[in-house]
Specification:
Elements lengths: L10 H4 L5 H14 L6 E5 L5 H8 L3 E6 L2 H10 L4 E4 L11 E6 L10 H14 E12 L1 H8 L3 E6 L2 E10 L4 E13 L2 E12 L3 H11 L2 E7 L12 E7 L6
Keywords: Methyltransferase, Transferase
Pfam families: Methyltransf_25
Protein name: Class I SAM-dependent methyltransferase
Length: 248
Amino acid sequence: MNEYTDFATVYDLFMDNVPYEDWAGFITRQLHNEDIRRGVVVDLGCGTGVLTRLMKAQGYQMMGVEVSPEMLSIAAGKAASILYLNQDLRELELPDKVEAFISTCDTLNYLLSPAELKEVFARAYRYLKKGGVFFFDFNTVHKYRDIIGEETIAESREDGAFIWDNYYDEEERLNEYEVTFFLQEEGELFRRHREVHTQRAYELGEIRFLLEEVGFTIKGEFDDYQEVEPNVESERICLLAQKINDKE
């Protein structure tokens, strides 16, 4: 999986348009629908912990798992009462079983093969209690191919700026983006940083198959964070999967 390093310091600055509070409310409603109103919830790919903290405010005992030490350092500095683990999701290990997993902001698109994605699903299934759920989102093929493929996005702020160059390989279904950002250090001095990340596009049917193969039962499919079924124009799809049986 790709790791955020220098970009972690400005991640929240340039992601301030993400409706985290709306997402937390939607996820909480889905958990409540499955009668999960308290207990341990694990945020996979928690980043700087914005959503993790919002879910804690909903009454859950939160844990965050993140592969980037830089991201975790920022998250831990904002909420000492949340347990954060520096782990690769493909090697997830927890001390005990939990009520739910969540994963947002297309974290699972960073898994570059169906085998890697299946491994994460299997580990989540292993550490869920019976009746526990896994709620996650992912970017669609439509988004990568038709919306952001070959696009360049640039944004300038008072204390920083970034240029986001995107390239989508339709045959391999791999989306590569290069982020060049400029951080203000002293006075008028801005230092240039660069990171390259790769994500994979998955079809909804492919993800359904992998979930069911490891034992999950799919309880809900949503167009973005809305009570609407996904369609061919969906750019982000959310899924709710449940561990009905104790298959290991």
